[in-house]
Amino acid sequence: MAPKKRSLGDGDEQEKTETQENKTKRKPLQKHQFSKSNVVQKEEENKREGEKKGGAEGLQEVVMQSRLQTASSVLEFRFNKQRVRLISQDCHLQDHSQAFVYWMSRDQRVQDNWAFLYAQRLALKQKLPLHVCFCLAPCFLGATIRHYDFMLRGLEEVAEECEKLHIPFHLLLGLPKDVLPAFVQAHSIGGIVTDFSPLLHHTQWVKDVQDGLPKQVPFVQVDAHNIVPCWIASDKQEYGARTIRHKIHDRLPHFLTEFPPVICHPYPSNIQAEPVDWNACRAGLQVDRSVKEVSWAKPGTASGLTMLQSFISQRLPYFGSDRNNPNKDALSNLSPWFHFGQVSVQRAILEVQKHRSRYPDSVANFVEEAVVRRELADNFCFYNKNYDKLEGAYDWAQTTLRLHAKDKRPHLYSLEQLESGKTHDPLWNAAQMQMVQEGKMHGFLRMYWAKKILEWTRSPEEALEFAIYLNDRFQLDGRDPNGYVGEDVWEEVWQGSLGSPAHLLHLEKGSIWV
User: Fold this and answer.
1) Does any domain span residue 75?
2) Where is the composition biased (Basic and acidic residues) (predicted)?
């Protein structure tokens, strides 16, 4: 006799009985503006009180209270199913299922994580244990110890928080296809939830895991990185920010909501997580250890929220006017935490938008760069599988680049010369060496940096290869959709231009490297 099946949708009737009070709390935002509901006003009061208690710790307390005010758990929250898409053919839970798994990948945090929340929602409905798995590959697309150390130290924080919430955290050593299906079969896992990335390596990982899973195990994906899910924002590759902007703003009222909390899981598991030897994990990595860790950016969600608090209190007032001035300290510096998913962009927007009345220009520009342009990058990589190749550019851009391929170039540099900052241009050298030493570069200078690489190499193909290599080797947020699509690399390919520095510095462009 075939085992009985339960639909993953069982229990949705609970959502239909939500109270009028909760509906009022979730009153939709008006188009092109943010809500000033009683809940948000209360959050502002709490935030001011929190700041009196001590900066970032106060912000963390306010954020925690905001989640609790939204719902006691995700089971009491009206989860927007448009964030979810089915990967497997079967969406029914087998009767013998022992637990659910959240396969954490791009979004490496516990709270403010729609994928984690959806996994707990399913587990709570079925009264089953919940497990978190992270698959650690020994090497990855040229990542160095700088990147791995930042990630692993953040994951240590995740593991500690999971333990406090009675949710076992499993660090599986190896590629997902080699370790995750085996874990699922060995422990009778009933269903898997994973997060979303548009990049080819991640989509291949998802496909490989799907192929290795038993056919009856439901497998779903949740976009926990974008505010508006990538497949909802647009069903095609967008031409640029001007074509996707209204699509995102039109949908923000439905998706820019407060988060419910991930709670202490009430259904314990008899599957114990193996203690993680983090030092042994680092020692076993097959990575370049010559690119050292940086001191200015401390990994983990707590440190990321500290950076968010410092941005709001110290730099947000000047972001609107000074964000494109490398001589001013006006940027958020949040890109590393956004890239590793240690801080949610949605959380940052929820906190920043509370200051909209005081700093309207700064808040509007931060939303443009952190939401519109960042989600445009995901859109491009999702719908254009040649995002890291010259073939991914529009035909007219490729034609223009070919026409200029034999233009005279007064200076030609090797990759080694560029990497060590040994060009004739002191500004470019300084920007390059900041990236080498600190793992970051001011967003406006990154446009200049990329444009000069296009001038100083033998072909557009070589320029793109060098730019991606240098960016991914040294930038803390390397191997990100923004790195392939942002002004630093692809803007030059789209323009098909070898313009002068003077022309570049008059571009009215905002940097997505916030």
Assistant:
1) no
2) 14-23, 41-55
User: Across the 514 residues of the chain, what is the mean pLDDT of every consecutive 10-residue run?
Assistant: 56 41 40 39 48 65 96 98 94 86 99 99 97 98 98 99 99 98 97 98 98 96 99 96 97 98 98 96 98 98 97 98 96 98 99 98 98 97 94 84 86 98 98 98 91 93 94 97 68 46 32 36
275: in domain: no
The encoded tokens of residue 500 equal: 């002068």
List the beta bridge partners of residue 189.
99
Do the domain assignments include residue 138? no
In the chain, how many domains are there? 1
The pTM of the full predicted model, rounded to 2 decimals, is 0.88
Whether 409 contacts 401, CB under 8 Å: no
- Sorted by sequence, the CB contacts under 8 Å of residue 333 that are 6+ apart come out as 296, 297, 307, 311, 440
Range of the domain at 431: 390-504
C-alpha torsion sign, points 44, 49, 54, 57? negative
Q: What length does the chain have? A: 514
According to DSSP, the β-strands at 219-222 and 84-86 are: antiparallel
CATH number for the domain that contains residue 466: 1.10.579.10
421: its two tokens: 């900052």
R_g (Cα) of the chain, nearest Å: 23
CA-nearest of 243, 215, 201 to 90 is 215
Q: Rounded CA gap, 134 and 103, in Å?
A: 6
- Asked if residues 244 and 219 have their Cβ atoms less than 8 Å apart, the reply is no
